[in-house]
Design brief:
The protein is about 20% helix and about 35% strand. The protein is α+β, with helices and mostly antiparallel strands. β5 and β6 form a beta hairpin. The N and C termini lie far apart (about 55 Å).
């Protein structure tokens, strides 16, 4: 008997991406699972319903006649392969169960749920390699290439997956904050802090480049995240960008000091979908100002919050988005544009250049 599986798939520009682990499209998560045993398995048979890598071990145990230990995930597919009496029961289970896949590579933690030939991708919004990621629902029968996001036209289509996510455990809803700023010649700088803990901190749009002897760098935004604060500086943005984060405990106050060209300009800051403006800077928010991937105006900030699904592992940890360093071009630009009396970003830049934590 031969059992052939693969640990991951591979994107080959089907969605503008190359590689694996970055997205939750079938290009990267669908893999072969082939069993060859001419004496017992009919050649060319295709099993109904989606299977997962968690089913490999129970299936191999089923081949040997051993019983899977209590608590082992997955189900033996051996009855389906041999058309055993229990095959209809196993087939019905495969058609109705929910399969989960997760990744946190090159961006925030995100996961997908596949149930009854539909896939729900629970992803905070972010950009990478010119591609925008976010939550989506795909009909895998009608749209195997996953090009038509049904969630864009009807957000209620995500609701049927809530029960499966809650039953699976390991996930929760939490509030994500977004601080975005528009394209333009302005210098954006400042500090976001809390008495709680910041986690899942990442840039909205990661712009990578290569310099020197193949060194990968970012050339858009200097962001220095810590457990309780984010200091940032950016200048001469060609397109909107910013950063996003979660706060623990839920509802903890967040302090925002957002400067434009080194000045406190409340009228350049829009809060939530209503575009309300803060009365002063710094300002403090503990909740509200909801939105869904709202875009900032040129030369201005947009601050808003959104309730999203997130894994317990991400919610209880603290990941910063990247270990890639800034480009020489970005550092030189910030040296020229960030004024010495802008204490927060100037200190952050100075610390970074000295290699201080």
């Amino acid at each position: 008997m031969i059992v052939l599986v693969s640990p991951f798939g591979q994107s080959l520009f089907e969605h503008g991406l190359l590689g694996h682990g970055t997205s939750l499209y079938d290009d990267e998560i669908r893999v072969p699972f082939i069993v060859a045993d001419p004496a017992r398995v009919a050649p060319g048979a295709v099993l109904p319903g989606p299977a997962g890598l968690a089913d490999v071990a129970p299936t191999i145990l089923g081949i040997t006649g051993a019983r899977p230990p209590d608590g082992m995930e997955g189900v033996s597919l051996w009855p389906l392969l041999t058309n055993a009496p229990s095959a209809p029961e196993v087939a019905a289970f495969l058609e109705t169960r929910a399969l989960f896949v997760e990744t946190n590579r090159r961006g925030p933690s995100r996961f997908a749920v596949i149930k009854e030939r539909r896939k729900f991708i629970a992803s905070p919004p972010f950009g990478l390699f010119g591609h925008r990621f976010g939550s989506a629902v795909y009909d895998l029968d009608a749209d195997p290439g996953e090009t038509d996001n049904l969630l864009a036209g009807d957000e209620s289509l995500a609701a049927p997956f809530d029960e499966a996510i809650e039953q699976a455990g390991g996930y929760r809803r939490a509030t994500q904050w977004s601080v975005l700023f528009g394209a333009g010649k302005q210098v954006y700088s400042g500090t976001v802090s809390t008495a709680g803990t910041l986690y899942e901190i990442y840039k909205d749009d990661v712009v990578l480049g290569v310099e020197g002897e193949g060194r990968v760098v970012f050339n858009d935004l200097l962001m220095l995240p810590a457990a309780d604060a984010i200091r940032f500086a950016a200048a001469e943005m060609e397109r909107p960008n910013g950063f996003r984060f979660f706060v623990r405990p839920e509802g903890a106050l967040v302090h925002f000091t957002l400067l434009a060209d080194g000045r406190r300009a409340p009228k350049r800051i829009a809060l939530g979908a209503s575009s309300e403006q803060p009365h002063r800077i710094p300002f403090v928010i503990g909740g509200g100002y909801a939105g869904s991937d709202l875009q900032p105006a040129p030369g201005a900030y947009r601050v808003f919050s959104e309730r999203l699904w997130i894994s317990d592992t991400a919610a209880e940890g603290r990941r910063a988005e990247e270990s890639v360093g800034p480009s020489v071009e970005l550092l030189e630009k910030l040296r020229r544009r960030v004024r010495p009396w802008e204490k927060g970003p100037a200190k952050a830049l100075e610390q970074y250049l000295r290699g201080a934590p």
